[in-house]
């Protein structure tokens, strides 16, 4: 109920509130969507950047391990290059240490450079040159002897037959590659350090048959050297897993000897190298890098909240900027629309004043925008309306004055008609037929002037002129003649009452020459565009130039001076009713005559209004 009332009071009939509400909704939705897209795009960009940094660190770890793998393989290949050295190594792999010592003594008696071909010294030199090697082991598959070299220059040899050890099975099962140290081999070597990884290289005899295994244990912490460059360039942890899932390297040192919880190695061999979910359900990003050569997997794990902290500042900045944009997007249009609404309401208030009859009301808005132009147009309209009202009001007064003067309004029309009819009948009975005609014309003329018609047409005005001229044609007999010419189609055009008769009367009074027999007056009506033009032309006395100028000046004066009532009445009424383009124009030459042009608007009698 409350919402409905609010809608009716503030929105239903309030266009500006609707515009503001719609604009605010569109602005907020647009800014929120753009902000969301920006946050998503920047967040994903930062996530991708962090994952790329971690991927680069993982590739560095993979390169390091592959390099160590190739280095061990190179050490194994170097054994074959020195035939005596390889022979000694092969002898050590297949014979007890005591026999190897005797074998070496026999070689020493024969050769002078025995140290360079001594297997024990050769492997000890390798351990001295490679600080990350913890153990070197030689295994002979024929007699199952395991020779173990330690970093502290210790050496021991074990017989690992099937009767008392699982090592032969271990050596037979495991293949070339990188793996975690086997527990049975660890036990034999007494090596229980968890942070180790093993590299095994098969050793073949001269017949290219497998003669045993070359096994190296390396310190996993040495892999950290590969991450020195990326120490502060990546987030999360990096681990290296063997193909069986054993942890070979852990940058954080938490999972040695344990099962890595975030990913299954069997899955990682086939999955996309980048994933976003973990096996344990913990929210983390996972990078995976598979080494086909070494048979291991490098995994990078970054908690999502750790990466989220990288773009939390950017997200907060975007949210703050979006909130400010929403504030400005709502505030500024609201202020503009409220101001616009106030100005519009002011215009509505003034229109209501005018509706109630206050034509003096004006809108004070000097601005040049659309509302300012509407306000000025409204003011101009009121000025024109007031001027029109004044013209019509004055024209009504002029019309009534003209009618009163022309008819001598104090005479009772019915008394006048009856009296004139008695006189006419008397004249006819006495044989004065011309006097009867004159009285008849005068009677009809007075009746026409007094009669009120809703639509006064050109035909009515010309009939009044004809009756008036007929009086004087009878009076002057053969000394005066007149013509009235017009297109019958113009007969129903609306014209102002008594607009031609006073002009004709002016000629009768001031222009006719009674001593002449060729006095003529012509009235011609024509239409030019949207204007109706009447020309009254005579051959009378004419008007002197000075007097003509006085008449023209008198016609243009704003106030009457009492002179030239007839001509001024016609001219001023036409101007008041129709505007400055209408009225009368006088051309005259002394002793040649006068031409008076009257201009009306061309309007049909049924549609036109007149006074």
TrEMBL record:
Keywords: ATP-binding, Cell membrane, Kinase, Membrane, Nucleotide-binding, Phosphoprotein, Transferase, Transmembrane, Transmembrane helix, Two-component regulatory system. It is found in: Cell membrane. GO terms for molecular function: kinase activity. SMART domains: HAMP (SM00304). It catalyses: ATP + protein L-histidine = ADP + protein N-phospho-L-histidine. The chain crosses the membrane at residues 20-39, 318-341. It is a multi-pass membrane protein. This is histidine kinase. It comes from Paenibacillus cookii.
């Amino acid at each position: 109920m409350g919402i409905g009332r609010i809608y009716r009071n503030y929105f239903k009939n309030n266009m500006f509130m609707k515009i503001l509400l719609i604009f605010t909704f569109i602005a907020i939705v647009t800014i929120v969507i753009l902000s969301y897209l920006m946050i998503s795009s920047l967040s994903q960009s930062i996530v991708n950047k962090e994952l790329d940094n971690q991927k680069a660190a993982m590739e560095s770890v993979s390169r390091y391990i592959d390099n160590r793998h190739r280095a061990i393989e190179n050490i194994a290949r170097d054994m074959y290059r020195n035939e005596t050295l390889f022979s000694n190594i092969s002898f050590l792999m297949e014979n007890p240490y005591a026999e190897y010592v005797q074998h070496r003594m026999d070689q020493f008696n024969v050769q002078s450079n025995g140290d360079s071909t001594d297997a024990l010294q050769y492997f000890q030199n390798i351990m001295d040159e490679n600080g990350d090697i913890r153990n070197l082991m030689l295994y002979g598959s024929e007699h199952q002897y395991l020779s173990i070299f330690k970093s502290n220059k210790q050496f021991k040899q074990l017989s690992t037959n099937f009767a008392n050890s699982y090592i032969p099975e271990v050596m037979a099962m495991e293949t070339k590659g990188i793996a975690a140290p086997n527990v049975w081999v660890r036990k034999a070597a007494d090596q229980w350090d968890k942070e180790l990884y093993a590299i095994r290289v098969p050793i073949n005899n001269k017949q290219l048959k497998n003669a045993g295994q070359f096994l190296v244990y390396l310190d996993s912490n040495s892999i950290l050297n590969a991450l020195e460059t990326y120490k502060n360039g990546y987030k999360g942890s990096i681990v290296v897993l063997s193909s069986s899932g054993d942890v070979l390297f852990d940058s954080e040192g938490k999972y040695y000897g344990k099962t890595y919880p975030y990913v299954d190695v069997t899955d990682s061999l086939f999955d996309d190298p980048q994933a976003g979910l973990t096996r344990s359900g913990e929210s983390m990003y996972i990078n995976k890098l598979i080494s086909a050569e070494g048979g291991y997997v490098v995994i990078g794990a970054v908690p999502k909240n750790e990466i989220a902290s990288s773009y939390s500042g950017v997200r907060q900045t975007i949210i703050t900027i979006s909130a400010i944009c929403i504030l400005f997007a709502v505030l500024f249009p609201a202020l503009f629309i409220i101001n616009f609404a106030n100005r519009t309401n002011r215009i509505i208030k003034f229109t209501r004043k005018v509706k109630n009859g206050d034509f003096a009301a004006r809108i004070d808005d000097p601005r040049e925008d659309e509302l300012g132009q509407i306000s000025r147009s409204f003011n101009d309209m009121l000025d024109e309306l007031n001027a029109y009202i004044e013209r019509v009001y004055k024209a009504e007064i002029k019309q009534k004055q003209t009618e009163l003067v022309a008819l001598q309004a104090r005479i009772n029309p019915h008394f006048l008609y009856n009296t004139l009819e008695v006189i006419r009948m008397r004249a006819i009975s006495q044989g004065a037929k011309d006097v009867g005609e004159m009285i008849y014309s005068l009677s009809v003329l007075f009746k026409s002037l007094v009669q009120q018609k809703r639509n006064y047409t050109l035909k009515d005005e010309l009939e009044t002129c004809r009756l008036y001229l007929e009086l004087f044609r009878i009076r002057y007999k053969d000394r005066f003649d007149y013509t009235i010419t017009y297109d019958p189609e113009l007969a129903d055009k609306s014209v102002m009452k008594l607009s031609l008769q006073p002009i004709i009367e002016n000629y009768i009074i001031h222009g006719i020459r009674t001593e002449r027999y060729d006095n003529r007056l012509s009235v011609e009506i024509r239409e030019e565009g949207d204007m109706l033009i009447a020309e009254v032309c005579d051959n009378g006395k004419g008007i002197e130039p000075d007097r003509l100028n006085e008449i023209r000046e008198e016609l243009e004066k704003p106030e009457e001076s009492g002179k030239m009532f007839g001509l001024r009445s016609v001219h001023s009424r036409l101007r008041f009713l129709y505007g400055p383009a209408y009225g009368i124009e006088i051309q005259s030459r002394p002793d040649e005559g006068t031409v008076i042009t009257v201009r009306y608007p061309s309007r049909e009698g049924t549609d036109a209004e007149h006074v």
